Amino acid sequence: MRPSPLSAPQIPRHVAIIMDGNGRWAKGRGQSRSEGHRQGAKTVRMAVTRARELGIGVLTLYAFSSQNWARPGDEVESLMSLLVEFCESERNLLLDKQIRFRVIGERSRLPALVLAAVEALEQVTASNEAMQLVVAISYGGREELVAAAQSLAREVAAGRLTPEQVTADSFRAHLWTGDLPDPDLVIRTSGEVRISNFLLWQSAYAEFVIEPIAWPDWTEADFDNCLVQFAGRDRRYGGVAP
Ligand code: IPE
Ligand code: IPE
Ligand code: MG
Q1: Whose CA is nearest to atom 12 of ligand 2?
Q2: What are the beta bridge partners of residue 17?
Q3: 140-161 residue pLDDT tens
Q4: Average pLDDT of the chain, as a whole number
Q5: Residue 154's closest CA among 143, 168, 142, 166?
Q6: Cβ 68 under 6 angstroms from ligand 1
């Protein structure tokens, strides 16, 4: 194992990654976008392994957005098959390394086969405590906020909650991320400087690192370098620097 670039207290509790650039990576090689996603899946294995080695508590990966359903059918299909393959091929790694797998997103939009595969992996890893791997599939931050608002509205309509009890804390509890800590660090590969509907509530005070490298080419050394950048940031949460 490569030595850790940071001391244990400097390691972020929650790292979230917008895994971007698979399509451009493939296009640059005259290959199909699906081939780019296939290569990207290999980087996922590296990121999960490295996060676990470094003692990161939660790793969230943005795999498929609510808006990605609008992509061409064959690309969506290949992404869905890759997700099912991932659940099978990485099962032993997650069990070996004591990693709990969870999915956030609009579960009702997932094809039955995908839903079955992710729920089976959630169940079999449910008691693992060394790290949580959260995969955002059919995920959108706005969709999540609307779902939370609807769920709170139902509670109020049923008389179980007063409007005044709708607070930042009760709102947070209704998000798909529920009990997870907010991300400390959000990384986006492939150079785009935008959030693309990812963890809108949760990233309120996250640090952002934009990597120029496409996801399939992203390495362990690049991951370490993002963490070093994070450790150099001065987080103020609206306060004043000491
Ligand atoms: C990220 O790569 C993977 C998904 C969004 C599913 P893209 O497919 O967005 O690749 P680019 O951004 O078009 O290069
Ligand atoms: C964000 O990337 C979604 C995922 C990485 C899964 P996109 O490629 O879909 O975002 P835009 O279109 O560049 O904003
Ligand atoms: Mg993209």
Answers
A1: 196
A2: 61, 187
A3: 999 999 999 999 999 999 999 9
A4: 98
A5: 166
A6: yes
pLDDT tens, position by position, 207-242: 999 999 999 999 999 999 999 999 999 999 999 988
Instruction: Identify which ligand lies nearest to the alpha carbon of 17.
Output: 2
CA of 107 to the centre of ligand 2 (A): 19
pLDDT per residue as tens digits for the range 125-134? 999 999 999 9
State which ligand 1 atom lies nearest to the alpha carbon of 26: 14
CA angle 38, 44, 47 (to 5 degrees): 155
Model confidence, pTM = 0.98
Ligand at minimal distance from the CA of 65 is 2
CA 205 to chain centre: 16
- Residue by residue, DSSP assigns 20-74 as --HHHHHHHTT--HHHHHHHHHHHHHHHHHHHHHHT-SEEEEEEEEGGGGGS-HH
Active site residues: 20, 68
| CATH code given to domain 11-140+183-231 | 3.40.1180.10
Q: Is the CB of 83 under 6 A from ligand 1?
A: no
Q: What is the distance in A from the centroid of ligand 1 to the CA of 212?
A: 14
